Amino acid sequence: MTSKSRNPKAYCYEHPRPALTVDIVLFHRSGSRIDVLLIKRANEPFKGLWAFPGGFVDQDESLEAAVARELEEETGLKGIRLEQIGAFGDPGRDPRGHTVSIVFGGVVDRSIQVRAADDAADAAWHSATRPPKLAFDHKKILKLALKRLADSAKQ
Amino acid sequence: MTSKSRNPKAYCYEHPRPALTVDIVLFHRSGSRIDVLLIKRANEPFKGLWAFPGGFVDQDESLEAAVARELEEETGLKGIRLEQIGAFGDPGRDPRGHTVSIVFGGVVDRSIQVRAADDAADAAWHSATRPPKLAFDHKKILKLALKRLADSAKQ
Questions:
Q1: What local confidence, expressed as pLDDT, does residue B2 receive?
Q2: Exposed/middle/buried for A114, CB within 10 Å: 0-12, 13-18, 19+?
Q3: pTM strictly above 0.80
């Protein structure tokens, strides 16, 4: 964060670059109930709203490393098996500007205790079918992730 | 390209950003033979090697629009139905620096005539199982795309 105050726009490129994030949709299934892990955003945009754990991919960081880092930073969870669900890149999905998010998903077999930290003011399991109001396009992402979960259960 | 000569590094951000590209793996299946559409790279890196059609996502351009634009620019093809295969972001996969590519795939029912243009010196259908030497990590991407194609044929 030091570089922010010293050098507000220090990273320059020849062509414009969309910002790149990862988000994690983690489900817990118990009988017919499906829960999803959400964090309450500590910062703008959408401060105070619930969202998936996630954040910006660092320079020279693999997508898998970014996902593991963000999940641990915001919820304390480590060693969770995750797979790519898809990339979401519609302009307008993030009020900060053009941001493409690569979404990873997973299922855990119990409602693991989580603790909020870093950019998360809170972290908790919520009903995935009746979630609270979500930040960004996370409602759309949740819908797709639930469809994938249902499809994989059929196989 | 004008902005390039005038302003070599005109796009500045507070945090570093990986570059973002899209690539298109287009198959044509005829009996047991599977062909894949490749372009010969007109520019460095990997100039002269074969690669998937693709390129950088423009500012405020959706991923689907970027894919359609790049496919048309480099091969002349329009209106092809494509779906996301996955994102590839390992540092080191592009010698220009950290570049994440979101790969889209599709299958056409005939070996449509293609014409090279823009960043492509040539465009042609090649055996997908015995392809020429490929640029970047496109060999790895092709392997995954072929697996997806085989999996979808089973369903």
A1: 37
A2: buried
A3: yes
